[in-house]
From TrEMBL:
Organism of derivation: Clostridium gasigenes
Protein name: 3D (Asp-Asp-Asp) domain-containing protein
GO annotation, cellular component aspect: outer membrane
Residue ranges constituting the Peptidoglycan hydrolase PcsB coiled-coil domain according to the UniProt record: 89-156
Coiled coil regions, renumbered to chain: 33-106, 185-219
Gene Ontology molecular function: any one: hydrolase activity, hydrolyzing O-glycosyl compounds
Keyword terms of this UniProt record: Coiled coil, Signal
Length: 408
C-alpha cells in the first residue's frame, strides 16, 4: 500500500512538472532544457523501478499459476479417488445387505425352530462319541463363521466410511486452497494492471520529453543541413558542414535526426563530387577559370567558423572534469572525442547552450550541459573515466567561442 501511494505521488508530481514546463512562460530556454533533462531522468528512473516491480509480479503470477495448476490436478485426482471409493462403498453395501440377509434368515430360522432344542437333539442323536464331537465342532464353526462375517462387515463398512470422510475433507481443503490461490492471483493481476497503466502513462510522458530532445537535436544540425541543401554552397562549406555532422552524430540519440544527418552527409558528399568534376572540366577548358574558382573557395575558407584565429569571443576559464550520466541538459548523450566534438558543461548565461567552442589542450566541444556548481567562468569538461577526471583536477584554460547555436 505504501509503495502504491509513493508511486501515485511520483506520477502526480511528474504530471505537475509537465504542466509547469508547458505553461510557465517565464522560463528561459536554458531553464526549460534543464527541467526537461531532470524530468527525463526522473521518468527513466521511475520506469526502470516499475519495470522491475512488474517483472517481480510476473514471477509471482507464474508461481501462483503453478500452485493453482497443481491444486487443480490434485482436486481432479481426489475426485477420481472419491468416485472409486464411493463405488467400493456401494459394492460393500451390496455385500453387507447380502450377508445381512443370510444372517437374518439364519437367525429367523433358529428362532422359529427353537435352535437350542434342535442343537441338543442334533448332538444327542449322534451315532457315537466321535460323531457327537464332530457335530459339536460343526455347530461351533458355524457360529464362529457367523461372528467373523459380522466383524468383517463392520470393519469394511467402517474403513470405507473413514476413507470417504478423509477424501471429502481433503477435497474440501483443496477447494479452500484453490479459492485462496484464485484470490491471490486476482490481487496480483490487479496490482500488475495498475502498475502497467502507470508505466504506460510514464512512457507517454517520457515520449513527450523525448520529442523536446529530438527538437533540440534537429535544431543543432539545422545550420549544417541548410549549408548542404543550399545550391550555392562551395566545396569548402560543404566539407565543413559534413565534418560538423560527423562530429555530432555520436551525441545524437534520435533515430529521426540521425537519419537526417546521415542523409545530409551523403547528399553533401555527392555535391562535393559534382563540384570537383565540374572544376576538372573547367580546368581543361580554361586555367584562368580554375584559378578563379580556387580563389572563391579560399574566400569561403576565410568565412568558415573553423577557428583559424577568428573567434566570436575568448574567455579565461577555470575547468574541472566530470564523467558518467546518460543525457545532458541540452538532451544529448555526453561524449568525449578528442578527434571530434566533446561535451562540456557551462553557465548558459555566459556560453549559450548549443554553442561550438575550442579549448586548447581539450579540443572542440559543444556546450550542451549545465551543473549547480557551474557558474560564471567555470566550466566542466566531460571525460571517459573517473581516473581521467582525478588526473585533470582543476585547471585554468582558454575557451574560444567559435559559433553560436543555429549558426554552425
Amino acid at each position: 500500500m505504501i509503495k502504491k501511494v509513493l508511486l501515485l505521488t511520483t506520477i502526480v508530481a511528474l504530471c505537475f512538472n509537465t504542466s509547469y514546463v508547458s505553461f510557465a512562460t517565464t522560463l528561459t530556454p536554458a531553464q526549460a532544457i534543464e527541467e526537461s533533462k531532470v524530468k527525463y531522468e526522473q521518468l527513466d528512473d521511475t520506469i526502470t523501478t516499475l519495470n522491475s516491480e512488474i517483472s517481480k509480479l510476473n514471477i509471482e503470477i507464474e508461481g501462483i499459476n503453478y500452485k493453482l495448476n497443481a491444486t487443480n490436478t490434485e482436486i481432479e485426482e481426489t475426485g477420481l479417488q472419491i468416485k472409486l471409493i464411493n463405488s467400493q462403498i456401494e459394492e460393500a453395501k451390496a455385500d453387507i445387505e447380502k450377508n445381512q440377509e443370510i444372517l437374518d434368515k439364519r437367525i429367523r430360522s433358529m428362532y422359529e425352530s427353537n435352535t437350542n432344542t434342535d442343537m441338543l437333539i442334533y448332538i444327542m442323536t449322534s451315532d457315537n462319541l466321535l460323531d457327537a464331537f464332530n457335530r459339536v465342532y460343526s455347530m461351533s464353526k458355524i457360529v464362529s463363521l457367523d461372528k467373523q462375517m459380522i466383524n468383517e462387515i463392520n470393519e469394511k463398512s467402517a474403513f470405507l466410511i473413514k476413507g470417504a470422510d478423509d477424501l471429502n475433507k481433503n477435497q474440501s481443503d483443496l477447494n479452500i486452497l484453490k479459492t485462496s490461490a484464485l484470490k491471490d492471483l486476482a490481487s496480483v493481476n490487479e496490482k500488475q494492471s495498475t502498475q502497467q497503466e502507470s508505466l504506460n502513462e510514464l512512457n507517454s510522458q517520457k515520449a513527450n520529453v523525448a520529442s523536446i530532445i529530438e527538437a533540440n537535436e534537429e535544431k543543432l544540425i539545422s545550420h549544417a543541413l541548410s549549408i548542404i541543401n543550399l545550391d550555392s554552397s562551395t566545396s569548402l562549406e560543404l566539407t565543413s558542414a559534413i565534418s560538423t555532422l560527423k562530429s555530432l552524430i555520436a551525441q545524437i540519440s534520435s533515430d529521426y535526426v540521425l537519419d537526417l544527418a546521415n542523409t545530409a552527409i551523403l547528399d553533401g558528399q555527392a555535391k562535393i563530387d559534382a563540384i570537383e568534376i565540374e572544376n576538372s572540366k573547367n580546368a581543361v577548358i580554361n586555367n584562368n577559370n580554375s584559378s578563379t574558382t580556387n580563389n572563391n573557395n579560399n574566400s569561403g575558407n576565410g568565412n568558415s567558423t573553423s577557428g583559424d584565429g577568428e573567434y566570436l569571443a575568448t574567455y579565461a576559464m577555470s575547468a574541472t572534469a566530470y564523467t558518467g550520466g546518460t543525457i545532458t541538459a541540452y538532451g544529448f548523450k555526453p561524449v568525449r572525442d578528442p578527434n571530434g566534438i566533446s561535451t562540456i558543461s557551462v553557465d548558459p548565461s555566459v556560453i549559450p547552450l548549443g554553442s561550438k567552442v575550442l579549448i586548447p589542450g581539450y579540443g572542440y566541444a559543444i556546450a550542451s550541459d549545465t551543473g549547480g556548481a557551474i557558474k560564471g567562468n567555470i566550466i566542466d569538461l566531460y571525460l571517459n573515466s573517473h581516473e581521467e577526471c582525478v588526473s585533470w583536477g582543476r585547471q585554468n584554460v582558454t575557451l574560444h567561442l567559435i559559433a553560436l547555436p543555429g549558426t554552425w
